[in-house]
Amino acid sequence: MAKYVYLFKDGDASMRNLLGGKGANLCEMTKLGMPVPQGFTVSTEACSKYYEDGRRINEEIESQIHNALAETEKIVGKKFGDNKNPFLVSVRSGARASMPGMMDTILNLGLNDVAVEGLAKLTNNPRFAYDSYRRFIQMFSDVVMEVEKSNFEAILEHKKEEKGVELDTDLDADDLKAVVAGYLAKYKKIKGEEFPQDPTVQLIESVKAVFRSWDNPRANTYRRLNNIPYEWGTAVNIQAMVFGNMGEDSGTGVAFTRDPSTGERKLYGEYLFNAQGEDVVAGIRTPKPISDLEKDNKALYDQFVDIANRLEEHYKDMQDMEFTIEKGKLYMLQTRNGKRTAQAALKIAIDLVKEGKLTEKQALLKVEPKQLDQLLHPQFDAESLKNAKVIATGLNASPGAATGVAVFTAERAAELAKTGKPVILVRQETSPEDIEGMVVAKGVLTARGGMTSHAAVVARGMGTCCVAGAGTVKVNEEGKFFTVEGKRYNEGDFISLDGSTGKIYGEKVKTVDATVSGDFATLMAWADKYRSLKVRTNADNPRDAKVAYGFGAEGIGLCRTEHMFFEADRIPAMREMIVSKTLEERQHALNKLLPMQRQDFIGLYEEMHGYPVTIRYLDPPLHEFLPTEKDDIEALAKEMGITFDELNSTVNSLHETNPMLGHRGVRLSITYPEIAVMQTRAVIEAAIEVNRRGGKVVPEIMIPLVGEIKELKMIKDIVVETADKIIKDNKVELTYHVGTMIEIPRAALLADEIATEAEFFSFGTNDLTQMTFGFSRDDAGKFLADYYAKKIFANDPFAHVDTKGVGKLMKMAVELGQKVRPDIKLGICGEHGGDPESVEFCHAIGLSYVSCSPFRVPIARLAAAHANIKNPR
Amino acid sequence: MAKYVYLFKDGDASMRNLLGGKGANLCEMTKLGMPVPQGFTVSTEACSKYYEDGRRINEEIESQIHNALAETEKIVGKKFGDNKNPFLVSVRSGARASMPGMMDTILNLGLNDVAVEGLAKLTNNPRFAYDSYRRFIQMFSDVVMEVEKSNFEAILEHKKEEKGVELDTDLDADDLKAVVAGYLAKYKKIKGEEFPQDPTVQLIESVKAVFRSWDNPRANTYRRLNNIPYEWGTAVNIQAMVFGNMGEDSGTGVAFTRDPSTGERKLYGEYLFNAQGEDVVAGIRTPKPISDLEKDNKALYDQFVDIANRLEEHYKDMQDMEFTIEKGKLYMLQTRNGKRTAQAALKIAIDLVKEGKLTEKQALLKVEPKQLDQLLHPQFDAESLKNAKVIATGLNASPGAATGVAVFTAERAAELAKTGKPVILVRQETSPEDIEGMVVAKGVLTARGGMTSHAAVVARGMGTCCVAGAGTVKVNEEGKFFTVEGKRYNEGDFISLDGSTGKIYGEKVKTVDATVSGDFATLMAWADKYRSLKVRTNADNPRDAKVAYGFGAEGIGLCRTEHMFFEADRIPAMREMIVSKTLEERQHALNKLLPMQRQDFIGLYEEMHGYPVTIRYLDPPLHEFLPTEKDDIEALAKEMGITFDELNSTVNSLHETNPMLGHRGVRLSITYPEIAVMQTRAVIEAAIEVNRRGGKVVPEIMIPLVGEIKELKMIKDIVVETADKIIKDNKVELTYHVGTMIEIPRAALLADEIATEAEFFSFGTNDLTQMTFGFSRDDAGKFLADYYAKKIFANDPFAHVDTKGVGKLMKMAVELGQKVRPDIKLGICGEHGGDPESVEFCHAIGLSYVSCSPFRVPIARLAAAHANIKNPR
Fold first, then answer.
1. Does residue A278 register a pLDDT over 80?
2. Looking at this predicted complex, what is its ipTM?
3. Is residue B454 flagged as an active site residue?
4. Largest Cα–Cα separation, chain A
5. Which residues in chain A have their CB less than 8 angstroms from residue B779's CB?
6. If you placed Cys at B619, which of A201, A260, B20, B704 could pair as Cys (CB 3.0 to 4.6 Å)?
7. What pTM was computed for the model?
8. Of B661, B671, B782, the CB nearest to A774
9. Cα–Cα distance for residue pair B633/B558, rounded to 1 Å
10. Is the CB of residue A533 less than 8 Å away from at least one CB of chain B?
11. Cβ contacts of A708 on chain B, cutoff 8 Å
């Protein structure tokens, strides 16, 4: 028979998957002989069974719960519903990963009309007993039986009015007894039955309620954001109640073995005498610092310090502990690895190594790669944030905090920024023409677009804070204002963005600058020591390249050449190229673009100091470069000396029904090989130039959107012919490589053919995800919310590589490619390259490098180290 | 050493791939002891080598040619450049598949200043000799040396003027001698060198020219249209010249062993005395019927008849033969299986079985499935077509011929059709709202859209002629006219379309109706006997279903339920459903749609007489149902009793950047499960109704666009719950199946998961092709022309399944699916289901059925038989 229920004395910390974090640690502390109120854990498997059985607890599990309860009663020497020494328990959720506050808790379970009297006698405190019973009835009714709290609160309020008092504490035992009677009557009225007096019924119903709460909307959202699988389920911990509110010799508190803000090694926390946990949380009384306990009760403090030290030593990590003192006796209610700031995480990890408690590898695993973001971007000042009001929430598209005045056009952003004003660029959605505004803005806010929208991608590249797709923000660009739920924010009004959480504030919030400490360098050095994946960056200009190099990028994995053409001094030539009717005209325009592009590449090569630079040839549909509004077309036509009709007809002819599936990528070069020739000239001539000055450039030319070997072959032949001629004419030696992106499913399926021509593959997982799923990132936003709500997708496949589907294609491509070309270089340059989980997958399938936006380079370095430590190559 | 050159006496008919069709048959006739002017064949492998070596003939091949030439000179007893008995040859292309007129030919090669004298003496006809030399110089210069013919024609014209004569034949030997001198001088002037006098140089250059001509644009287009791989290359046949123009005892002719128009068994052909092949072709003199030869020269006629009979007996097929009589001696220049009309093809195949020459299986293989189209659709009257002028060409989107007056709206089409006028509906592109116009039109012409555009798909379904994507046709729908190269065609002007070739005529051309003979039924019966693939049809309404059933469809493989909602009496309810803001509103609209949909299904079931009917649930993006023009939105808003702004904002909110990758297919049901509920009710209630009347309906419910098992599971659960309840409530038994389309790459990759829920797979190869290649059929048109021109694609992957890429996914899905569910039903319902090559592929990978538009059902039946005969299951 399967075992679904474990006494605390029968488990240990290794059973986290089965017992949840809280349960496993309660077992472990029991094993270590620490003072833990005893109890038992209903396993996560029981939770799965509950859902499998159609949301019911089967007889087997129920009977195991009864048995465990009986055992526990023996251990603690109390009995459920006893009128002298009643056994009371807490019922708490406890998943494999901590999900604080997301699921339900029931305290004081076991109280009924009899037990309350027992409690009153035992504690000699009837007021306490009836207050506990009152609270239990309310909590149980609300959480387990779905009777709204407000039904009960009214009774309590009424009683206070009747007595003419303000505070709950002003009610005496009799008052509370009357309140309890009122509660029970109300319950019966609403539910049509008596409040359950049988503690075992209370218990089984409560276990169900906790299981049920695993599936509540709050928990589902939290899991999606934290990438916790729905399948895990939660365990339920049933633990003997201890009371911190039994008088001045009782109390309760929370403590950390180190400071969770700074990482400093000292006991950190607070406690309250004569209080229960909820009083600490409620903030009515101000708790005392934990150090005061030494003065208040030296023996107890020493005992606690000893336990804290032993726990940290045991878990080899900073612990976050909850404790209760009941009539002078210390009880440990929980211990877990403590949450900490990024700065603290670094310091603790490094200190633990210095203290000889952890190896470097172990220490690396203690720091979440994603956390590093905090160190690299400005954050809100905690004090200033306290009173700020969130007016809306969007996607946390690019981390960091920003405050500034709202502006609605790139031009205005540039004007105001010049005067020294901090600006936030607010747009419906951004387009490449907004680049100049984005460069000067402190933050970018868009009403539309997802995590891989233009705004998000570009902002991340620049390290600028961005909140994207804030649907409740209605932007009126022409009118220069936006509204949120009817409230209007005009140009010049201060707003603030938190790009790490997606929160938007309608006011000024102070920010503090990023601080990169020496610890950061130490940790990164360790990461580099233990990783096998190289980390490159996606950078389109020397500015980004320089930042990325500073963050440790080992080359450029993706330079999107088209981004270079959006700048004001270049776009005219680009547009001229696009509207050219003949090869000669087009050639003429390309000749204007050549020197600019060459100069860009020189800049990139120089910033990369000899690291490889991968240059992707022109990729987007050409119409992206052309204006769409009538006025803009008119203006451009005038500027270009052609008629409106002529330009308009070109713009129309470039219209596509599904631009994502249209004339772009290598398809452009197939139609206009002269573009590939120009870009090759720029790549090669720039490399020759930089190498003449002592550089060691080995350019990598990347052909995008290849789906058929003949496409690649044709363009590669043009590239090689052009390049070799220039090299020969210059009488120099220059190595260069030609490869392709694998972003079309067909390319992955036929990667063995593709590899006969491609010297490297770079997985373009943005497009590959779109094509493999058959939905575009621009359009999926509309229905993905439904997909999460209905648990069809656990998370966004554009944020984390879909290892099952897209990953299968990637593995296939890796294997097919290596079969034909064993030394083929394999990388990834989609947005997934900076996502720690995706980095782990890339490591597992044997890629050579990942490439990500500059500010994600440190994250990728640490993630790569994690991957290799967990699964060494 | 590889053998690249074969004497006619050394080959046979089995060597077609190596020697080409012409060469292999010349060898075979030689082997059979027939009078063939001797010679040799340079193989197709030599052609491949020529291209591999950068368009040159290597020394090895050249030396093999020289050797073969020397051998041939011995055999025929003549010598190159001899002044008494000069050896002259023809140099002709000959690919594996016949490509008539696409490549180059050189006649009379070997003539030079010496040999011409030898020829004059030998024939005792200096005029003939110099005329031959003149022609050779012109042909060689033009074809081989790229000197324009016009250079020479001017000299000849000048000579005729000088002599004051009209015809070439009025020039005498001396005149022609002077012309030859003029030609040679002209050649030298243009090329800067003497005309090559060395016959071996002439020969090698000519072989090169033929190889080169394999790659000319004409040949490339022909290959693409006929699906002949570029890689095959052409062979070159060098054959001793014989002259049909050596006097009245000479002649030349062409004959078929049966009538290629009707298939009647009688020698059919024509000949001319004292003439060369080109005279027959040129049509200056009228040839005599072959039967006249019996009177003219009984012995020769008997010899020819004997040869013809032996050839047909030998090849077991109708032969198309070329012959020349030189001074009373018969020479066979070519034999091949003759091209024939569809009607003839059927008759010949069936007669050959009756005559005991072929088995039924062999006979089936003699009929091209595609040819059957001719029998099922009206064709142009051959006489009337002779003088008709093609004004433009589009895609041959739906076969048949049509003539009628141009109209530019569906409404006008309906009006005029009611008066009995034949109409051609001309549109920029059609949309579902044009259906009523398409139903009444004789033909449909669109300026945009590809082979799988709305117009093409719907027209094929209805069997209506359609020419799509005719880019040079500029349609002005509002102005009610179109222009082609400036010429204007107004509403009411007659135009004609050939949907089998894509040709458009600016005038009335008489059509003749389709004729389906008893032979058709015989052949189809044989096809059914030998095929293992079932053939179903794609039909959305009882009308199409009935046609398809008549053509032998064994069920409906795809019913696109959305097509039912475009009709005028339904679209209001559909639109109401779409703009609903609440579930209640939507439910209300769905309740209106339910009875209509149920009635449609009853009709379909009845027309299918118990065969399976597969119903695909709502698939297209919802905005397709909404109007886009301001006026239309205004009208609709009024009709629906909502404000313009409200409706307009709904329309806008439904806008998608890439609708093909947007909110459609199963994604709609995930968001609005009530749609799936309504459709299930309609499917099941209709089945119960029909079965009550004695039907045997087993509906198959098909969920489209699934990419993830949980999508399918969720909707299947809803379907099953709804269906089972209805069945139970009705107290009946009803079997139904729930399956899915495999049209998203991810579904194919994870087909083992999908098969746990799907009872059947139907490959939606339109979408699967789009996603696998990453281009949409709507947008690819723009660049596919470049892809053909540059030989990146041999043909349209939307017309023939891309077996390498898309096919790999299909095979993977078949294997994964069968692993989990060995009896899974596998079909295809993309447009490829009616393409013979694709049918062959579907057979090979083990599908259970193909489904295609009604008029392609017979084609698919025959193609399925071909597939199983060639590759039995």
1. no
2. 0.86
3. yes
4. 103
5. 656-659, 661-663
6. B704
7. 0.87
8. B661
9. 32
10. no
11. 773, 792-793, 805
